[in-house]
Amino acid sequence: MTTPYHVQLAPAAYLQIKAFPLKQQKFLIRFIEALAVNPRPEISKKIEGMTGLYAESINHNRLIYKIEDQDILVLLIK
């Protein structure tokens, strides 16, 4: 079994999540928490030319995050 990753939200990502309706906030948070177990799900796309950056499309929104060692930093949700 692999060690879970530590997930953090950048301040901008935190504010962006808080701007969504509560139902959507909960969905996004569950998805972000799942990254701790599987940081590279099949639907994620590596951003070419950028080391460790990945993007996911979630309900017409884009989540961009960086994986570094055992840490994940959620940078942006638009």
Structure description:
- The termini are far apart.
- The protein has a single domain, classed as RelE-like (YaeB-like fold), CATH 3.30.2310.20.
- The mean pLDDT is 90.
- It is globular.
- Strand 2 and strand 3 form a beta hairpin.
- The longest helix has 13 residues.
- A five-stranded mixed beta sheet has the order 1-5-4-3-2.
- 27% of the residues lie in helices and 35% in strands.
- It is built from two helices and five strands.
- It is α+β, with helices and mostly antiparallel strands and 78 residues long.
In a few lines, what is going on in this structure?
With 78 residues, the protein is an alpha+beta fold.
Question: Helix-strand pattern, N to C?
Answer: EHHEEEE
Query: Architecture in CATH?
Result: 2-Layer Sandwich
Question: Beta-sheet strand percentage?
Answer: 25-35%
Overall pLDDT: 90
CATH topology grouping: YaeB-like fold
| SS class | alpha+beta
Overall body shape:
globular
- Which residues sit in consecutive blocks of at least 5 with pLDDT less than 50? none
Task: Quickly count the helices.
Answer: 2
Number of strands: 5
Biggest sheet: strand arrangement: 1-5-4-3-2
**What is the CATH first-level class name?**
Alpha Beta
CATH superfamily: RelE-like
What is the number of independent domains?
1
Largest beta-sheet characterization: 5 strands, mixed
Radius of gyration from the alpha-carbon trace, in angstroms: 12 Å
Percentage of helical residues?
A: 25-40%
Separation, N- and C-terminal Cα atoms: 33 Å
